[in-house]
Design a protein that fits this description.
Low-confidence stretches: none
Largest sheet: 2 strands, antiparallel
Distance between the termini: 42 Å
Shape: elongated
Number of domains: 1
Number of strands: 2
């Protein structure tokens, strides 16, 4: 907010709290739900775009998986905790 409108930190924070409260009160839960749905759609599209771009840069899924060991069992460590039941382990990579 300091860079955009020149408000200090606390004025900007208070302004955002008031604006969010007013948005919720005036628009009700419908406005909040619509905002959440829109954000979810944007996040899914962004995640899928990033996945596609990352795989493209890496050379495809075959390039990503070519160097993975076939037997990953030897890379799994067993972690135990003093709070865990005796004899129980947590598998971890």
């Amino acid at each position: 907010m300091q860079q955009t409108v020149g408000w200090d930190l606390w004025t900007g924070a208070a302004g955002l709290v008031v604006a969010t409260g007013a948005y919720t009160v005036v628009g009700g839960m419908h406005a909040v739900i619509y905002t959440e749905v829109l954000q979810t759609i944007i996040l899914i599209i962004g995640g899928l775009s990033l996945l596609y771009y990352s795989l493209e840069v890496a050379g495809g899924m075959s390039q990503v998986t070519c160097c993975l060991p076939l037997d990953t069992g030897k890379y799994v460590a067993e972690l135990s905790s003093s709070k865990a039941e005796p004899g129980s382990t947590w598998p971890s990579a």
